[in-house]
Amino acid sequence: MVDQTAQTPALTAEEQRKKEAYFTASQRQLIWARFKKQRAAMIAAVVLILLILMGVFAPFLSPYDPTIKGRNADYTNGAPQIPQFCDHQGCSMRPFIYGVKRERSIATNFRWVTTVDAEDRRYLQFFVRGDEYRLFGIKGTLHLFGVDEGKIHLFGTDDTGKDIFSRTLHAVYTSLAVGTLGVLISFVLALIIGGVAGYFGGVIDGAVQMVTDAVRTIPIIPLFMAIAAFIPDTWSSEMRFFFISVIIGFINWPTLARRVRTHLLVERTQEYVLAAQLCGARPGHIIRKHLLPSFTSYIIVDLVISFPYIVLSETALSFIGLGLKDPVNSLGVMLQNTTSADVLLNYQWYFIPVFFFIALVLAFVFVGDGLRDAADPYAGTKK
After folding, report:
1. What is the DSSP-derived secondary structure letter of residue 71?
2. Residue 245: which of 293, 180, 160, 329 has the closest Cα?
3. What is the radius of gyration, based on Cα positions, of the chain?
4. 129, 142 Cβ separation under 8 angstroms
5. Tell me: the pLDDT tens digits for 28-86?
6. Which of the pair, 319 or 3, is modelled with greater confidence?
């Protein structure tokens, strides 16, 4: 009879170390280890981090003020200016763009026409002084790049001469800020309402579920049409931004609240909850210290997954004119400029912010899916 134990190869020191690390790892370490194995989620995470950094440091990365103060009146509806190293005059070690001329033309009935001057080189410079801004409450005038004379517009300009590159970076920040505020509001409401319903159950759970179902049945578009009519024109852009964020947060909590309730209905019968109750712990303490931490990773995953939907809500509402409006720079506000046939035919660079919007939403979706699979302890055993 063959000895089965003799056929089992001995584990090497490295394999033994990895095995011990796996069985002693925390939940966070296990999720991170599974998440790193998903290439699409890792790439999306890198893209998402870059977009967040671009939004946070938008005042420094953008060369000009994205509002009407930083507009270039001599280059309205201007095409993107791509830095280059070589032209008909030869090559240069420093990247440059061409200057522009604004003059009246007989061919256009003496209307102003902007033309490119191929003889006028304007060299790209880094860390230049420009428009004043505030970053983390600190005033500054230093920008990442600029040109030695005039202005540079990597993504072109709009019909008022505002730099689309600067507007895009600030729009990413605004959309992220709206999403963050909306997620935080919905997160707090979901934990409180779902936690109370799941822990107590019975009549309280039934009443809470009636409220939850009522909120879920509220039609979004008519609601925001009524809100848009309610908001006075005298409100500042900051007040409108805060109000829209709060409303989006208040209508997005039911889904997460239901998940919290479902989990607590199961967990409240566990022995550790009974032990805490016998020790005299209050319901609020049990929910906050014992029940909610037991599925923190799933809550984080739900937040990441819900983030793009809140960003989509803001973008869609701003796009149809019910959300944020100029002078606020958001992705939805910028997408409003792409609705005319004139833009589609003549000013295609208006669509550049669309690609940032798509990248932002897809990055959140892939990261959320990756986290959801990584947080599932049975993901590796599914066929």
Report:
1. -
2. 180
3. 28
4. yes
5. 777 788 888 889 999 999 999 999 999 999 999 999 988 888 888 888 888 898 999 98
6. 319
pTM of the model: 0.80
- Cα 282 to Cα 271: distance, rounded to the nearest angstrom: 16
**DSSP state, 291?**
I
- pLDDT surpasses 90 at 237: no
Residues whose CB falls within 8 Å of the CB of residue 289, separated by 6 or more in sequence, listed in order: 281
Residue pair 322/225 in contact by the 8 Å Cβ criterion: yes
Pairing between strand 138-147 and 90-105?
A: unpaired
Helix H or strand E encompassing 187: helix 164-200
Q: Which is more confidently placed, 117 or 356?
A: 356
Q: Where would I find the H helices in 201-234?
A: 202-216, 220-230
- Cα 376–Cα 377–Cα 381 angle in degrees, nearest 5: 100
Q: What are phi and psi of 65, to 5 degrees?
A: -65, 125
Pairing, β 84-87 against β 138-147 = unpaired
DSSP E strands in the chain: the ranges are 84-87, 90-105, 111-135, 138-147
| Token reading at 217 | 């049945």
Alpha-carbon distance of 216 to 254, in angstroms, equals 7
Residue at 263: amino acid letter: H
The letter for the amino acid at 367 is V
Instruction: Give Cβ neighbours of residue 22 (< 8 Å, ≥ 6 apart).
Output: 30
Q: Which residues are CB-neighbours of 311 under 8 A, at least 6 positions away? A: 175, 176, 178, 179, 331, 360, 361, 364
Whether the CB-CB separation of 142 and 57 falls below 8 Å is answered with no
Residue 105 is which amino acid? S
CB atoms closer than 10 angstroms to residue 323: 27
HSE, CB side, 13 Å, CA atoms: give it for residue 147. 19
Integer Cα distance of 360 and 372 in angstroms? 18
CA distance linking residue 228 with residue 310, whole number of Å: 18
Instruction: Give the chain's domains with CATH numbers.
Output: 168-381 (1.10.3720.10)
pLDDT at 164: 92
CA atoms within 13 A on the CB side of 185: 18
Contact assessment for residue 168 and residue 155, using Cβ atoms and an 8 Å cutoff: yes
